[in-house]
Design brief:
single chain, mainly alpha
């Protein structure tokens, strides 16, 4: 049966969940001067200015930490440190060619990289469980992401989301930013430059697609 915790995150949040997410999402909203500073620093970074990326990381750290906390709260992985997740995600992002001209574009890229880090870690854990006692280094020595069934469901969700991105990329971004990044509807609407109602419609359509694909995977359908 499809993992209930994953299914819950793909359904509409309960009142208690909304309250918790609002508390996380509103505790460190960026000031306008910070947004402008990040934009200028991105220009400096693309121009090759030394230490520009370090300054961007410092300015964005509280926001990135908030995203990591939100992500771990949704997954109930309380022993995985948000600090470790932020650090590993930033390293992964810094190794790629960062094509961002604003804070919101950079945060969107960070969420995508965070999804990749989490899935890489889950897959390593699955390999460790199936392997011949090979020790795999995790982001946190004490992290226990749950049983094998739940990890496999998360991998299935990631695969379904990748499939969705090939057909309806905007819907896939809505799910990625909301499920893997914990962004609010308002934040996603701002990133996509659309109305909040559009985000809600996209979420409902994407949720139906993904739940159907998860059911097909469970039934062994191609």
């Amino acid at each position: 049966m499809r993992d209930e915790r994953i299914a819950l995150c793909l359904t509409n949040e309960t009142r208690q969940e909304r309250k918790q997410m609002e508390a996380i999402n509103t505790e460190a909203l960026p000031a306008q001067d910070t947004v402008g500073a990040v934009t200028q620093l991105l220009m400096d970074a693309h121009a090759g200015k030394a230490n520009a990326w370090d300054q961007i990381y410092t300015l964005l750290y509280s926001d990135l930490h908030r995203l990591a906390r939100s992500q771990l709260w949704r997954k109930s992985d309380q022993t995985l440190s948000p600090t470790a997740l932020v650090s590993e995600t930033w390293i992964k992002l810094s190794r790629a060619k960062i094509n961002a001209e604003s804070r919101r574009q950079l945060v969107a890229l960070f969420v995508t990289a965070m999804r990749s880090v989490i899935l890489d870690e889950v897959k390593r854990k699955m390999t460790e469980k199936r392997g011949a006692g090979v020790k795999v280094l995790s982001l946190s020595d004490g992290w226990d992401s749950g049983d094998a069934d739940r990890m496999e469901q998360l991998v299935s969700l990631d695969a379904a989301l990748t499939d969705l991105s090939q057909h309806m990329p905007r819907l896939a971004r809505v799910v990625e930013w909301r499920y893997f990044g914990g962004l609010s509807e308002e934040e996603i609407a701002n990133l996509l430059d659309v109305h909040v109602r559009t985000v809600r419609r996209d979420w409902q359509a994407a949720r139906s697609f993904l739940l159907q694909r998860l059911d097909m995977t469970e039934a062994g359908a191609p």
